[in-house]
Amino acid sequence: MPSTRRTSVYVHFPWCLAKCPYCDFVSYATPRSDIDHEGYADAVLRELEWRAAALGAEGRPVRQVGSVFFGGGTPSLWDPRQLGRVLAAIRSTLPTIADVEVTVECNPTSLDADRARALRDEGVNRLSIGTQSLRQDQLTYLGRLHDPMGARVALEAALASGIARVSTDLIFGLPGQTPADACEQAATLVDLGLSHLSCYQLTIEPGTRFGELARRGRLPRAEDGQVADAFLALDEALSARGLTHYEISNYARPGEEARHNLGYWLGDEYLGLGCAAFGFERSDTASPSTGVRYRNDLDPRRYVTAARAPGGFSGRVLDEPLDGEAMLRERIMLGLRLASGFDLSAAAAELGLVGWTPARTLEAERLAGRGRLVREGGRVRVPTAAWLWTDDTAARLF
After folding, report:
1. 3-state SS string over 53-117?
2. Are 397 and 363 within 8 A, CB to CB?
């Protein structure tokens, strides 16, 4: 009988009311009135039908969906009825677990009590709200459209809506920001009743407005020492409030971890739907294992046209073959982001590879001797105090 594999579904909604200067996701600043809510949902449904037929071919492993994530862009701009059509189709077309996690990313400018309840009624059980800051000067620097009160109102509406789980994002490492200020904002958010908080260091990406300003030397930046101090201070402050620092950028009360993101960090497959969405599938028969990462067309109009094409969906713009070693490197890079680490031996064996080669074993011993890595049998993890160097630690184990 075919085996069963964990998977998740990511649905990309590519429109926002404004483009934030630090954002490198595919999103397009568009007035609400110019968004074709129903037409875009129709296109996603056509793509889902085509992909589900390929996944359900005879003899292929059964993919069981544990989470669905609507990201963007700003999915809270999407008419909840159209988002609900897509969610209902996913649940009826693909095998899903009984308590599937369904998350929608929201901005405070497009979330109020009525919208939160409407999303709840469509089957959404988790909201992720982009607060980013509770200080007006910082929100202005970040190019956000809401003000601190708007963020609080949106969070309180979400918490009162009956949606089971609410998370928010906070950006730290801003110019002139002290570690104490970052901690005070995080504490305020948690004290509203949130059970999950994502704290992201501001990163400057090429191709963004901030990236261009930084290239010209015209972007105010925080000092590296202040950013590192804020990271450690947030860990201490949020741990004192009962949240577990379970991943480099994420804190949760026990049982409230983001299941969708855990799937990425643990190397699960994921089905990407919508304009610019990425997906990842492993081969069914090859050993050592191989896989492919695909991406859909980045232009919404071309994506919709491809979805309407006779003979099946034709909107893929990237098919990146992955061999077993490439997939193992990704598992190392992502698995070491978790406080619990991951089982390198098991991950390699699943891919048909040897995890603890002599070279990797020697490097792990060196890292452990420097306090950068802990090895417990086949498992490895990075101590919290060494999380600031996780990327370099992972690269040394490649």
Report:
1. HHHCCCCCCEEEEEEEEEEECCHHHCCHHHHHHHHHHHHHHCCEEEEEEEEEEECHHHCCHHHHH
2. yes
CA distance 90 to 87: 5
Distance CA 127, CA 167 (A): 6
Contact yes or no for 68/101 (Cβ under 8 A): yes
Which residue type is seen at 305? T
CB-based contact 192:158 (threshold 8 Å):
no
Fold of 4-264: TIM Barrel (3.20.20)
DSSP annotation of 338 reads B
- Residue 165 confidence (pLDDT) above 90: yes
> What confidence score (pLDDT) does residue 1 get?
40
- pLDDT exceeds 90 at position 211: yes
Q: Give the per-residue pLDDT at 116.
A: 98
Using alpha carbons, select from 265, 237, 264, 242 the residue that is nearest to residue 339. Answer: 265
pLDDT value of residue 58: 64
Tokens at 121, concatenated: 């009624």
CA 337 – CA 394 distance, rounded (Å): 9
The pLDDT tens digits of the residues spanning 83-98 come to 999 999 999 999 999 9
Q: Give the span between the Cα atoms of 73 and 11, in whole angstroms.
A: 11
For tokens 């929100």, name the residue. Answer: 139
In the chain, where the domains are located = 4-264, 343-396
The reported pTM is: 0.96
How far is residue 127 from each of residues 104, 173, 216, 261, measured CA to CA in Å?
5, 24, 37, 14
Whole-angstrom distance, CA of residue 63 vs CA of residue 284: 11
The CA distance from 242 to 339, in Å, is 16
CA atoms of 18 and 16, how far apart (whole Å) = 5
Chain centroid, CA 6 distance in Å = 17
Q: What is the DSSP string of 251-297?
A: EE-TT-S-HHHHHHHTT-EEEEESTT-EEEEE-SS-SS--EEEEEE-
What pLDDT is attached to residue 20?
97
Q: What 3-state class would DSSP assign to 151?
A: helix
Beta bridge partners, 244, equal 252
Nearest of 191, 194, 200, 262 to residue 234 by alpha carbon: 200
> Is it the case that residue 319 has pLDDT exceeding 70?
yes
Contact (CB, 8 A) for 8 and 66: yes
